Amino acid sequence: MAVLPRFDADLAEAGFGDYVQLLKPRVMSLVVFTALVGMAVAPVHLYPVAAFSTVLFIALGAGASGALNMWWDADIDAVMRRTASRPIPAGRIQPGEALGLGLALSGISVVMLWLATNALAAELLAFTIFFYAVVYSMWLKRSTPQNIVIGGAAGAFPPMIGWAAATGSVSLQALLMFALIFMWTPPHFWSLALFMKDDYSKAGIPMLTVTHGRRVTRAHILIYTVLLVPFAMALGWTSIGGPVYIAVAAVLNLWFVIGAVRIIRRDEVPAEADKYRVEKAFFRFSLVYLFLHFGALLAEAGLHSFGYGAL
Q1: Residue 29: which residues within 8 A CB-CB, separation 6 or more?
Q2: Which of 3, 80, 177, 260 lies 20 to 30 Å from 241 when distance is taken between CA atoms?
Q3: How far is the CA of 276 from the CAs of 84, 206, 238, 287, in angstroms?
Q4: Looking at domain 16-169, does it have CATH number 1.10.357.140?
Q5: How far apart are CA 275 and CA 302, in angstroms?
Q6: What would the pLDDT profile of 111-161 be if each residue is shown by its tens digit?
Q7: Rounded to two decimals, what is the model's pTM?
Q8: Does the pLDDT value for residue 1 go beyond 50?
């Protein structure tokens, strides 16, 4: 049973860092980077002020999603070791403050992105915030072990938003960038769940490790990793890809599949004995995996600007 967050008068007042933490800066950094790449690789280039504004307002939208998520999840955050020190369960920020901040930043980010770019980009940003705060946080997260699979769409929209901000449209390239993140999300989070199962169980979150066990989760990681490969590689043969991306993606995906195979071959006893070393390594590499894919797309954009075309 979840424990409600505490609000003791003796606790220190919230500092600037607490409000920053409320916006989930680590998640925001990934959102900003992928959105920036989506904008940079688009065939239409924004003026510097418009480009900076686009990244800023997408970042604010991501922060709004984080604040709304922390407001809603304060009760389960309080019982999870990984999240108990967050500002709301720790009592440094009141839930109402987080809700107000999240709603304010949502409105500001969507309206300002519309004014800075176009209606499609603003609509996609608004839908992303709604999907993460309502569809994922309020519905999927506590109701189904497929929470991460479906909810992964929220984190997959940023490069599409960046592309739409530059072009005013959505194309195959934008959809493939979306698909890359969408298919990457389940193995990334399930590898975390393998060594954080007790936290999810205590909080009553029906993560796949809780509802079906670690063995099934390991199998799902391998399945989704294999399914991810064609989406990741397909980007190399579009107008935003090229030999650099294809080479980088080939190495990363081979290593990712090898990591998933190592995970499924694990027995629970040795995995627990070495504190899930293989699973933690796979989780860390999954972050590098996504960053380098989008970094390679950025490198290709630089090469194309100097006259080196895609395949």
Answers
A1: none
A2: 260
A3: 22, 21, 38, 17
A4: yes
A5: 42
A6: 999 999 999 999 999 999 999 999 999 999 999 999 999 999 999 999 999
A7: 0.91
A8: no
